[in-house]
Amino acid sequence: MRAPENLLADCSSCFGLCCVALPFAKSSDFAVDKAGGQPCRNLLEDSRCGIHSSLREKGFSGCTVYDCFGAGQKVSQSTFTGQDWRQQPSNSSEMFAVFPVMRDLHELLWYLADAHDRTSTAALHSRLVHEYDELDALTSATPEILMSLDVSALRSRINNVLLEASELIRAEVTGKKKNHRGRDMIGAKLAGADLRGASLRGAYLIGADLRGADLRLADVIGADLRGANVRGADLRGCIYATQFQINAARGDSTTQLPESLTRPDHWA
Ligand code: SF4
To answer: Which of 168, 180, 219, 260 is 20 to 30 A from 47 (CA-CA)?
Structure first.
């Protein structure tokens, strides 16, 4: 099971939900403060961004990093059947509340699809498919059901099978593997490091120097790669890597990416 198309953001089918529903705090990532539910001042009437080609120059680099895993188009076109919050203001608060829940569900689907898309997890395939189908069905629930979901409980249940899958995948790398799970590695000097099959689950790698590092088959679920230098690094086969993490890191044409992810336009 490859991550299906519907887990990839399609902004043309979304009512600009990330630009309205989410709150921003003024920082190096966003030039302004904005409350959740308030449309960004740069959002156009047709849901396109008025400064799309100059987001970074204008202080909105966070917008070039964010990825909704396709939750925006799902909420816009399926949950709310194509009714724009502008035309149906009575739906807007529900729509904005459902969006982050849908994003969490789609993120979990992304991880399950990744775990399933590996031959070493064959013993878990039926469980992974079962979890995927159950979760996928939930994404078509009503706004009321979606808003009442205990996403933390879901996340923790699904994490069990993701963890088992990770063990099987990382066992493909022979020898001792590094365990940096949850570790504070902010600014760590890891240029050229051998991190094959390592556990980097939830590790704080903000601004880390990972130039030329070998992260093949490393589990990076939840790892914070903001500003990490991954130039020349090998990330092929990284487990549970997301476009959001790649967008947040600093790479270039020499960075080798997992097959399912694309090279960000803003990389040099
Ligand atoms: S700057 Fe553009 S992409 Fe960012 S939130 Fe505003 S409208 Fe959306």
So the answer is: 260
